[in-house]
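hey m, so remember when u said the tokens were messed up on ur end? i reran from scratch. heres the input so u can diff it against urs
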Amino acid sequence: MSLGPVGLLAASALACAAWAVALEPLWLEKREVQVPFPGLPAALDGIRLGLLSDLHAGSWAPESHYRRAVGLLTESRVDALLVAGDVVGHHAGGRWQELLAPLAGIEAPLGRLAVLGGHDHRYDARAVIRRLQGLGFTVLRNQAVPLHREGESLWVVGLDDNSDSPGRDDFERACRALPPGAPAVVLAHSPDAVREARRRGLGLVLSGHTHGGQVRLPFWGALLRVTELPRRFDQGLSRHGETHLFVSRGMASTFRLRFCCRPDVAVLTLRKAPRA
């Protein structure tokens, strides 16, 4: 029995919808990226940073999703673990703290650092901070801290949420302790931070927030737009002068929907590069 053109179209649409709702949102991808870093000291060449963003714990993702992320990062043997905000969904139920428990299993000898996103503030920023601290994280709210390796330091400049309410993020305050010329990574929820990071000559920005658009169409890209940056910069690695930007597609979301835009965890290896 032939379905005919209309029937085939309907069946295709139904299959795509099933894929986008049932399968792809839980199909985690590990993205391993080499990042050129001008001026990086030789002792820091090869340092590996694990990046998670947009965990949205308590929304719809099961604990197995978070355990899978832990497994992917554990096998990569990262030096430091960074979380770029929206740790919890703003409408999270009572199990969100339990869902995050697997993060304690990721070894990160140089440190665990996190910043907050808009959902964290809308839910309960203090509760999110307490939970992250209980898992061994230092939560950065407009401050910079060093990661030490072999006598050298890679500084992480952490911005409070820069995606939701103007004024929470304060780049000037965040960079106050940063030694002049020190190699620095900016950890910020929204990739819009790259403009100020570039102005200040900082080497790398790590962020999330965009979810990669969640639904991406061939030859067009993301349907969801939540950044002021051009569409081509809403996921993955890009260069902005001497500053590189990496945007995670995130682990979860408010709505269970992804198409051609798998959730991800990222492992970024910094590589010494000459200055232009």
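this time it looks ok to me. The radius of gyration is 19 Å. if urs says something different then somethings off w ur setup not the seq
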